[in-house]
Every structure is written in structure tokens, then in C-alpha cells.
UniProtKB/TrEMBL annotation:
This is cyclic-guanylate-specific phosphodiesterase. Residues 24-278 form the EAL domain. The keyword Kinase applies. Transmembrane segments: none annotated. It comes from Marinobacter algicola DG893. It comes from the Bacteria.
Amino acid sequence: RAKRQGKNTWQWHSGLKAERSQHSVKLRHDLHTALNENQFEIHYQPLVDAVTGRMRSVEALVRWKHPTRGMISPGEFIPLAEQTGQIIPLGLWILKQACIEIADFNAQRERGLRVAVNISSLQFIRGGFLDDVRRVLAETGLPPQLLELEVTESVLLDGAEPVIELMETLKTLGVRVALDDFGTGFSSLSYLRDLPTHKVKLDRSFVEKTTTDHRIAAIVQGVITMAHHMDMIVVAEGIETREQQDDLARRHCDILQGYLFAQPMPLADLKKLPDLLPVNPAR
Ligand code: C2E
Ligand code: MG
Ligand code: MG
Ligand code: MG
């Protein structure tokens, strides 16, 4: 009986697997039309100063409004777009759209807001990316100082030298590069040593445990101290509670981002947001 049950389980699993891959075949197909039909939209999540609570910048996070499936999260379709190569035109659209929208947002303000755009490794290391950035800045009028690019350690998989060179060139343009999801990859420390980045973003998987796991807390404190010695700014992602906010602020983390302050939102909502973000009283 146990055997039969095992077999049934196997059949069930493989059925589920087939269904899942059918699902992704369909999504992959839909991705092709999605760009032409304007199904993507960018939401913005504020990053706040850990001391003053003032909004310092926003992160652009793409959303796919699928005509029949509703909202699909980037965690699901970005990997597919990377597999099909669609990430190149999609990534360029995101970069340009974010620059257009934030330039528009800034037109009504005294002080310019900075926008951080996530860049896939494939997109970043592809020849031509630098030209894309230059062209988008020229076409949208966003000052280079107000653009930041978020990349992960995986940009280094095919070798560090061209990446370091590209980052140096971006830096001379005035565009900053931040290291995203820090702590989730391999040999993070040597990357920190080599990369001319000005900011590290501590991954949420650390942030959610600093208050309960003293070893994680030690790593987080170590990264913050080390980054500061290297003249880098540290961001903590995924702040959901006041306890986490207090803990990271006490450890001199510079910038905080998370649902405690604000969720990612459409541009229209961002325009209504006050400069000083009160902590969501419901939490
Ligand atoms: P990421 O760049 O690390 O972005 C942070 C993710 O954490 C976002 O998820 C954001 O909505 C979520 N988040 C922020 N605060 C909190 C919090 O307090 N709690 C929790 N549980 N989550 C929080 P999202 O928008 O679903 O994006 C997921 C990932 O997809 C991003 O991770 C990034 O790797 C990728 N992605 C998103 N937009 C783009 C894009 O325009 N281009 C590329 N290449 N990748 C993107
Ligand atoms: Mg990011
Ligand atoms: Mg991140
Ligand atoms: Mg992350």
C-alpha cells in the first residue's frame, strides 16, 4: 500500500510539474505581446533616512498587469524574461520609463528625488548597456546623479574586470551603482573589496532575523561597520516592524526600506506622499 501511495504521490507531483511548466510556456509566450500592449507598469517604493525618516530615494519595481491572470510578480516573470532574452527590450523599457516618470515627478519639486532601477546581470554585462544609459539620460533629461542602478553579485559570474570597468565609467558619468540582495550569494566579501559601488543593500533574509538571531546580528553589524570603513552606504531591505527599524538604526544602518514605511506604489500615489514618512501606525 505504501508503495502504491508512493506511486500516486509521484504521479501527482509529475502532473503538477507538467502543469507548472505548461504555465510557464504560456507566460513566456504572453511576455512577447505584453511589451507591445503596454501591460507593464512601474511601482515605486520609498527608501528613508534611518535617522530623520525623510524619503531619500525610490526603487522602481516592475509590475505585469496580465489581461487574464491579473498582477504577476517580477519574481515570477523576470527569470522567464531572462531565459527568453526578452529582458533586454523589457529592461530598456523599464529604465526609460522610470527616468521619464521621475523626471516628471521632479519637475514639480525643488529637490530632485533619486530613482534606483534594478538591472539584470544579462542586461548589465551586455555590450551596449552604457550607450543605452547615456541615451536614456539624454532623452529623458534626468540628471545622471539622480539615477542609481541596482545589480546583484551575479554580474560577476563571467569575470570581474569588464564589470569593474563599466562601473567606473558609470561613476564618471555620475550614475551610481548599488549592490542588491547583499549576503545571499557567494564570497560577498571579496566582491565588496573589488567593486566600485557606493551602496550595499542588505537582503531581507538578514533583516528579518537580526532581532532574534545573534549570529545574524553579528554579520549585519560587521557588514555595516566594514561598508562604512569603505565609504559605502548601507540600506536594509524589508523592514516590517518597529523592532527591526530600531535595531538597524541602532547599528547605524543609513537607509531603511520596507512595508513599515511604504509599499511599492504607482507614480500617482507617490506624488501624494509627504516627504517625511510617518511609520504606518497599524504596525
Ligand atoms: P529586489 O530588487 O530585492 O526588490 C525588493 C523586493 O522586496 C520587492 O519585491 C519589494 O516589493 C519587496 N519588499 C519591499 N519591502 C518589503 C517588506 O517589508 N517585506 C517584504 N516581504 N517584501 C518587501 P518585488 O517587487 O516583488 O520584486 C522582486 C524582485 O524582482 C526584486 O527584488 C528584483 O530582483 C526583481 N525585480 C523587480 N523589478 C525589477 C525590474 O524592473 N528589473 C529587474 N531586472 N528585476 C526586477
Ligand atoms: Mg532591488
Ligand atoms: Mg533587493
Ligand atoms: Mg532582495
